TrEMBL record:
The keyword Phosphoprotein does not apply. The keyword Kinase does not apply. Pfam families: Phage_integrase. It comes from Variovorax guangxiensis. Keywords: DNA integration, DNA recombination, DNA-binding. This is Integrase. Signal peptide: none annotated. Residues 156-332 form the Tyr recombinase domain. One of its GO terms (biological process) is DNA integration.
Length: 348
């Protein structure tokens, strides 16, 4: 049996004991541990709190004032329920997280999301609360998982609705009973404003500056900002026309589209299923709207002023577009909705 004790002022402040088969091994361990414990900050680290990883997740969720997105919350709750999360944080190794990724049984893109959210907890735990969590552990695990092909970045979608598919959707939505969600206007607005469904349902008439014209996009999606990321975005003539058609009086206030984003998504998905339209998501309307602006000859800064992209590098995927026409020129639904089409290829 080998024992290492550290005293301060004649009082034992730390003690460790290990058992070995042979005396030389025991002496080597004592010598190594004495050297490690003599390093600056070594004892402070041993005295630091070391809760289970599940408890660390709970504290992270409770104190994260910016707000945690629905997907991130679901992932962290799932991680907290695992047997691995029941262990003390300092005892979890990179190899443990690699095995965790293997056992998930999900697509590499999904596994990458899991490790990304776990990494966020690691990044905060030590500097914020002094927990014994080394961010290098999860960093090394992510590198290994990437090298083994266990994780990968999400592939960018290039799906765009065809005019025939949109015609079928708009016809179906037009046949719905009076008082239903105005999906015709919402679909058109999603395309011409390039807004996401959550953003559409948060915009208000008070956020509109008709003279410019532009509008505030509240809590715009951003990797590091889940709330309070308000961005002012330019409006295309079509998007402005849709907003004005929704305004019944100049002084009208409140949400432009006062509906639940989840319901909009469900109605859109159900309509695609009913019509036999495969692999079309509501978010693809935003991609179509951004692509259209490049097809009109707009450059990256001008497109970003509408889409709200903070970094232009995110829009470089569209620069391969060489068409110089308006997909929606002469689109009959513009006239039916009272929207004026703009076919100019000049920069705004």
């Amino acid at each position: 049996m080998a024992r290492v004790r550290i005293k301060e002022g004649g009082v034992v402040v730390h003690s460790e004991t290990e058992t070995f088969d042979r005396e030389p091994a025991a002496r080597l361990w004592m010598k190594t541990r004495e050297a490690e414990l003599a390093q600056p900050g070594a004892l402070a680290k041993l005295r630091a709190p070391d809760p289970t990883f599940a408890e660390t997740i709970q504290k992270y969720v409770a104190e994260y004032r910016k707000g945690i997105g629905k997907t991130k919350a679901q992932v962290l709750n799932a991680v907290a329920a695992t047997s691995l999360a029941k262990r003390r944080g300092s005892t979890i190794t990179s190899a443990d997280w690699v095995q965790f990724a293997k056992d998930l049984g999900v697509l590499p893109q999904t596994a990458d999301n899991y490790l990304s959210h776990i990494s966020a907890v690691y990044q905060l735990a030590r500097p914020a609360w002094g927990y014994q969590l080394d961010a290098q552990v999860i960093s090394d695990a992510r590198k290994v998982c990437k090298a083994l092909g266990l994780t990968s970045k999400s592939r960018q979608r290039d799906r765009r609705p065809t005019l025939d598919e949109l015609d079928k959707l708009m016809t179906l939505f037009g046949n719905r009973r009076k008082g239903s969600i105005p999906m015709q206007e919402i679909v058109a607005y999603a395309i011409f404003s390039t807004r996401r469904q959550d953003e559409i349902t948060r915009q208000t008439f008070e956020d509109l500056d008709e003279a410019h014209p532009d509008i505030w996009v509240r809590d715009m999606k951003h990797p590091g900002e889940k709330s309070g990321n308000d961005v002012r975005c330019d409006l295309t003539p079509e998007a402005l026309a849709i907003i004005l058609s929704r305004r019944k009086a100049p002084e009208q206030k409140g949400r432009i589209f006062p509906y639940d984003s989840g319901t909009i998504s469900r109605v859109f998905t159900d309509a695609c299923t009913l019509l036999g339209i495969e692999d079309l998501h509501f978010h693809d309307l935003r991609h179509d709207g951004i692509s259209r602006l490049f097809e009109l000859g707009w450059n990256i800064p001008n497109v970003a002023s509408v889409s709200g992209h903070r970094t232009w590098s995110s829009l470089r995927r569209y620069t391969h577009i060489r068409h110089r026409n308006d997909k929606y020129a002469g689109w009959p639904w513009l006239e039916k909705l009272g929207i004026r089409s703009t076919t100019t290829e000049e920069q705004p």
